Amino acid sequence: MHRERLCRAMAEAMVEKGYVGTSVEDVLKRAGVSRLSFYRLFDSKLDCFMTALEYSTELLLGRVAQALGRSGGGDPVERYERAVTGYLDALKEEWPAARLCLVEVYAAGPEAVARRGELQETMTAVHADVLGATGEQGLLACRMLSAATGALVSGPVAQNDREGLDAVRLQLIAHVRALWGSGVFGAGAG
């Protein structure tokens, strides 16, 4: 219970102060948890951040899974539309988690950036699954789509522009429709 509350407090404090400006004391005040309780759970601010990164990622990926689970079927492009809409809605609704995963992760240092890279590969696998990508070309297209999605959403999130994510959604869907039509994702496409 304290762990999750501290992770949420870490993300919320960083919306206001950024990673560098957020102190352990800021997190403690937000969470209403003692310093002793914090250090029983975490070795450092970075340790808390890394755990908050995991929580935030699970939260956002869970929302994608929920979006895909609703009305289950559909062709791959329809499934992609549901997935990207679920992801962008989650970013808007879970703003502290969005900022933590997409903006503050780079200020937290090499360990956090390396973990962000691993999470990017998870998103690539989600894209490949949703779009039924096959072969090297299909997987490369999904890796590029995952990287482009991260880059396109990071700008509005960094600028605290939730509405800017709506334009990104339309761009991504239009692009995936065009890619699908070209057969770039492999078997079943085109």
Automatic annotation (TrEMBL):
The keyword DNA-binding applies. Gene3D superfamilies: Homeodomain-like (1.10.10.60), Tetracycline Repressor, domain 2 (1.10.357.10). InterPro entries: Homeodomain-like_sf, HTH-type_TetR-like_transc_reg, HTH_TetR. The lineage of its organism: Bacteria, Bacillati, Actinomycetota, Actinomycetes, Streptosporangiales. The keyword Membrane does not apply. SUPFAM superfamilies: Homeodomain-like (SSF46689). Residues 23-42 bind DNA. Residues 1-60 form the HTH tetR-type domain. Keywords: DNA-binding, Transcription, Transcription regulation. This is HTH tetR-type domain-containing protein. PANTHER family: HTH-TYPE TRANSCRIPTIONAL REGULATOR RUTR, MYCOFACTOCIN BIOSYNTHESIS TRANSCRIPTIONAL REGULATOR MFTR-RELATED. It holds the Pfam family TetR_N.
